[in-house]
Each structure stands twice: as structure tokens, then as C-alpha cells.
Amino acid sequence: MKDKYTAVWVSHSSISDFLKCPRAYYLKNIYKDKKTGHKIQTANPYMSLGQAVHEVIESLSVIPTERRFETPLIDRYEEAWKKVSGKKGGFANSSSENEYKERGRKMLERVRNNPGPLKNKAVKIDMDFPHFWLSEDENIILCGKIDWLEYFEDSDSVHIIDFKTSLDNKEDGESLQLPIYQLLVKNTQKREVTKASYWYLEQDDLPSEKELPDYNESFNKVLSLARKIKLARQLESFKCPNGEAGCRECRPFERIINGEGELVNQIDKRDIYIIGYEEEKGDGTIL
Length: 287
Prior knowledge:
With 287 residues, the protein is α/β, with parallel strands linked by helices. 35% of the residues lie in helices and 18% in strands. The chain has helices at residues 12-20, 22-29, 45-58, 73-81, 94-113, 177-188, 215-235, 251-257, and strands at residues 8-10, 39-42, 131-135, 140-143, 148-152, 157-164, 192-200, 208-210, 262-267, 270-274.
């Protein structure tokens, strides 16, 4: 039965969480602290860097093209960085923070010098949080935010652009990101999607075009995964693939629940924690 308050909401990030570790999916997307009633989240430098850079670039889409770069991007960046500075952003010390901040500065200087599609008209989806019914009968909603929609006036169509602030996790052919974004854009505004790209801001002056996935294949694949998530929620079955030892995805959240985290911020009914300043190796071992 269609009811957005009881519906299962899925997104690219939540589906990715579930595929990596159902336990991590539960701890990130369902679990709430008994004292505050809030969900929990970890702060880390990579996420903070991405948040600040995305905030600056995405804010341009609502500004008329002729005025889009009147305020220097670096000035906008300084304001955005204040929200993630220090412990709030998961930075161990000022030296580490300055290193990440400089990376972001260089990305925005690249955009300033090579604005490319950002000089052109953009479409803004008329929803605070874009979403649509993936299945009304099964009470499943797909949601998510699109970084940028370039408008092609000659074809009255749009170009999906996703900004990447890290080279460590390049999207491959199996990634669900473009399929999910295509579904969202198709169902939350009236124009056709005729192009999609990733823009790796640390190395590329322009976005890198990707082949558009088949819409029906994308729909069926995403719906199938959403059904698995819904079933897991109904059965309350969220097991880590590594068993009780946990993995690099769920272990930090288990540590927060066990009282090892330090609360550094609260945003939108989410408690933001840091866990010392440990990092994990690729095999999940905590250093």
C-alpha cells in the first residue's frame, strides 16, 4: 500500500551500503541511538572534502549563467569549509586539515579555469529531496540528489554530471550510480536524459562521458535490489559477511555503539562521531 511514511526508501548510497555489508546498512540507515533518537554517522576527511567542494559547485546551478562566477569560487569554499573544519570534519590536526583543504582549493581552481558545462544553462529538479515511487504496490521509493543537470536547448534534454573529488574509487561498469541517477532524473522532471558524465575534479579539465545504461534494465536491477533490502528489513536480518568479527564497513559503527566514539556534531537528527583518528587498511584491519 502506497504510504511514504512507512515506505522503504532506497538510494545509491543505501543500496551500496547493503551490498557491501547488510550490518553496515542497518547501522547507517536504520539504527537510532536510544538516548538521542538520532541516527549515527562518522566524520572523515574524504567525506568532508567532498562535502565542501560539492556545496560550492552545486550552489552555482541556481544562479543565472551570466552571474554564476561573480563571487569567486574560493570565497564560497572558505565559507563551506567552516562547516567541516577541525574535529567536525574528522581531521586529526591542522596539518592534515590544511592538506585536504588545499586539495579542494586546487579542484575549484581547475573548475574556475575550465568551467565547461558549468557556463551553460542548468536544470534544477523542483523537489527539496528528489524521489519517486519505484513501486507503489510494494511501497518502495527511490531517492537521491543529482550533482548537476546541464540543459541542452536544441534538444530540450539534460546531461547528468556527477562530480568526483577522489580518484581512489572510480566508478566501473558495474556501478549502480548512473542507472540510479538516470531513473531519478527521468521520473522527477520532464526532460529526456541524453548524456551522462563523471567529472574527476582532481585530474580532468572536463567531464568524462559515459554510456547511458538501458532504462528498463536499470529499473529492474534497482527494483530487485530494493526488494532484497525490504525483505531484510521485514526479517530484521542484517548480518556482516565476516560474521561477528565485523568488517571495515560496519566495525566503526559498532565501536560507536560500544561507547568508543566522540560526538563532534549533530546535523539533521544525525549524531556525527569520530573514533580517535584511526585509519583502516584495505583488509579492514584498524591501525
